[in-house]
Amino acid sequence: MAKRIGVHLGTAGGASNAIERAREIGANTLQIFSASPRTWRAPKIDPKQCERMRELRAALDVGPLVIHTSYLVNVCSQSADVRNKSVAAFRGEVERALALGAEYLVLHPGSWKGLTRDEGLKLAADSIQRAIDGLPWQGTGFHILIENTAGAEFSLGGSFEQVAELVARLRTAAPVGVCLDTCHTHVAGYDMVSTEGYQETMRQAGATVGFDAVRVWHCNDAKAERGSKLDRHEHIGQGTMGVEPFRWLLNDKHFAHCAFIAETPYDEPGDDERNVRVLKSMVK
Ligand SMILES: [Zn+2]
Ligand SMILES: [Zn+2]
Question: Which of 27, 65, 199, 277 shows a CA-CA span of 20 to 30 A to 269?
């Protein structure tokens, strides 16, 4: 099977348009939002759109389909009100993901500001379980992917250990896996840039979240320095990471099963296509 390489795409005119767009730019996987990422209320998806999506994906061999959760969702908020809204919104995310036939739904674990990290972890696990309670995910292959974050203060998931802890708490109750982001890993302080650093970072990933649990790598270069905790994505090879880490990652046998998806900036027309082409050119 061909290596799965794609990019986050817009869904103007309907989610299914993104499938055709993916193929046009040489991608065979993609990530989308299933609703506006900055509003709480999301409309239900037209069943015709879901059908079209399945047809196009089968015809064009595009997959996995990855959906990124809205930025508003904070499943470990200290505020019960925000948490309840987040659970309802995340439930909607799972419903739409299942309707669209998505394999993966990526979630940032959230901010535990005002609490202890351990309280945040417990709330995040509880909220995710509440959100998926009773939904028909069994037998679909659908997974919620917990994404590692840039490691800003109070943000859960800034280390592989924290991601692994949340996944371990959910493992028996929910279909969970992991999404790792190169930019987040780098700015959180892990070394992916030197040869030995890359080896050691991946050894740590294997020892914590485990290689098999990682289903998606977000491939983003970083505008900020390693350890800065500043999450600013850059075009592949043009940031503080450079091209080599991406070459190693794309050819790393531990991640042969993964999809690689860029969430790089869109500064000018063709940027999405260019980043996909750069990633594809690195595959040996
Ligand atoms: Zn990401
Ligand atoms: Zn990011």
Answer: 65
Question: Catalytic annotation on 235?
Answer: no
- 46 carries an active-site annotation: no
The answer to whether residue 116 scores a pLDDT higher than 90 is yes
165 catalytically annotated: no
Average pLDDT on 77-94 reads 97
Q: Is 8 a residue of the active site? A: no
Q: Which of 204, 275, 198 is nearest to 233 (CA)?
A: 275
User: Helix (H, G, I), strand (E, B), or coil: what is residue 76?
Assistant: coil
Reported residue count of the chain is: 284
Look at residue 275 and give its three-state secondary structure: helix
Place of tokens 């860029």: 262
Domain range 4-281, its CATH number among 3.30.70.100, 3.40.190.10, 3.20.20.150, 3.40.50.150: 3.20.20.150
Q: State which residues have CB under 5 angstroms from ligand 2, the bound ion.
A: 231
Which of 8, 108, 186, 215 does the annotation list as catalytic?
108
Catalytic residue among 93, 95, 103, 147: 147
Average pLDDT over residues 189-204: 98
Q: Quickly count: other Cβ atoms within 10 Å of residue 38's Cβ.
A: 9
Q: Tell me how crowded residue 185 is: count the other CB atoms within 10 A of its CB.
A: 30
Contact present, 25 and 7 (Cβ < 8 Å): yes
Residue 175: which of 144, 148, 147 has the closest Cα? 144
Q: How far apart are CA 263 and CA 249, in angstroms?
A: 16
Domain boundaries, the chain: 4-281
Known catalytic residue at 254: no
114 pLDDT more than 90? yes
